[in-house]
Amino acid sequence: MNARIYKPAKTAMQSGSAKINEWILEFSQSIRRDVDPLMGWTSSSDTQTQVQLRFPDKESAVNYAKENHIIVHVCEPRSRKLNIRQRGYGENFATDRRGAWTH
What we know:
Elements: E1 2-6, E2 23-27, E3 34-35, E4 42-43, E5 52-55, H1 58-67, E6 71-75
Parallel strand pairs: 1-6
Antiparallel strand pairs: 1-2, 2-5, 3-4
């Protein structure tokens, strides 16, 4: 049984940093998917692909995989530079703006 451990990226709808500090163990597909000839939907009898286990840190996810004899591939997250402006969002509406206000 193979699995992947990764730290999920933020969705496009998130602007904060909530719910990005957990690690996910996700099982890989072991049986190929079949296409339904009538509807064109894909399906599989493998229910392990629907399972996602969440862990507070990478070490606990790796330890769980070792205890249960699961072969894992750990995907390290890419670091991201924070984009914090000095005056923040209120600078958009400041009366002492240096540049011209354009719409």
